Amino acid sequence: VQLVESGGGLVQPGGSLRLSCAASGFPFSAYYMSWYRQAPGKERETVAGITSVGNRLTQLDSVKGRFTVSRDNDKNTVYLQMNSLKPEDTAVYFCSVFVGSTRYWGQGTQVTVSS
After folding, report:
1. For residue 19, which of 7, 55, 75, 83 is within the disulfide window of CB 3.0 to 4.6 Å?
2. Per-residue confidence (pLDDT) for residue 59, from 0 to 100
3. 79: burial class by Cβ within 10 Å (0-12, 13-18, 19+)?
4. Quick one: pLDDT at residue 19?
């Protein structure tokens, strides 16, 4: 299993970013995919998830209405569209999948929201 995130960077408050996570090594279209984030000095938290057929679950109240998770099963890729970004969204963002009895993580992509 391999998960590779991309799309992070430095953005001003109110800006947008789209994160991507390219997956391989497992039947992507059959699996629930998740996005997490971890800010400095804080625990990793679940941001959102999406079922194999595209049903979305936004699990973090602070991002509801601003972040949208999506997937393209033809491209084995899951996305996180982040709009109206705030400084408190600054974190390393990870995608993740639970396959068999193991949770797999990507290397993460840094998102910094600052003026």
Report:
1. 7
2. 82
3. buried
4. 98
Under 8 Å between Cβ of 19 and 93: yes
Q: For 57-78, give the secondary structure using H, E and C.
A: EECCHHHCCCEEEEEECCCCEE
Token pair 């899951």: residue: 78
**C-alpha closest to that of 65 among 91, 52, 84:** 84
Q: What is the rounded CA–CA span in Å between residue 16 and residue 49?
A: 19
Can you tell me which residue has the tokens 């497992």? 26
Mean pLDDT within 37-52: 96
Q: For residue range 19-34, list pLDDT tens digits in order.
A: 999 999 999 999 999 9
How far is Cα 75 from Cα 84, in angstroms, rounded to an integer? Answer: 27
Give the span between the Cα atoms of 112 and 15, in whole angstroms.
Answer: 11
Length reported for the chain = 115
Distances from the Cα of 2 to the Cα of 23, 61, 87, 89, angstroms: 6, 29, 30, 25
Strands 9-11 and 109-113: what pairing? Answer: parallel
